[in-house]
Here is the input.
Amino acid sequence: MRILFIGDIFGRPGRTIVKEKLRSLVKEHSIDLIIANGENSAAGFGITGQMAEELFELGIDVITTGNHVWDKREIIDYFQMADGNPHSPARRLLRPANYPGELPGWGWYEGVKGDFHYAVINLQGRVFMTSNDDPFRTADQLLKATTAKVILVDMHAEATSEKISMGWYLDGRVTAVVGTHTHVPTADETVLPNGTAFITDVGMTGPYDGVIGVKKELVVGKFLSNMPVRFEPATGDVRLCAVVVDCDENTGRAKSIQRIMQK
Ligand SMILES: [Fe+2]
Ligand SMILES: [Fe+2]
Here is the structure.
């Protein structure tokens, strides 16, 4: 079984390159399951229900998010569409599982695609981020409840150390731990000794001629002035960053992880 995971989709440039490249990527890599982090889909800040549906229509099976999930308030209504209706597409949009439990939305999804039974878990780190529940123990609890062998974890975090620790902590218990959030791809993709594919950060799918997606003049200006600045998405040097994880669907063990960057 082959899984494509696409890193943080940023604004219209990110959504457009996914639209342009996804079909050929799926064919070229014989992809069975597509997961994408969509937390920056709406001009860099959050995601709307309509954007989630557009991504689902392109063939993305599950959308993960992170700290930007709440930026567009209407996403709360979209999450609530899946209340009591587990077959609603809205159920396949996730927010990190270790936010307070009473918040709208879900942090995991367990489903079937063709012959393949799989689960996706979305976690958020706590280093230099909001003080959510412990992502490590949240992972333990969710893994106790899941019956899928193929399990992908999106570890949305700032600190490389926290993401690498999660990789080691879950090695042999999940198929892949992929890092998101920093928008800068790392070159450390590997299969850990007990069969978990790992990368510290998949990288952003969006414009690279800015500062992690935002127009460079605005961010540089903010560093110079320390004044509040309204961020706008950059537009140029658009790239799609992703990984392909090949795994044994019967054991859930990863065989390989390949990093992809397409312009
Ligand atoms: Fe992001
Ligand atoms: Fe983030």
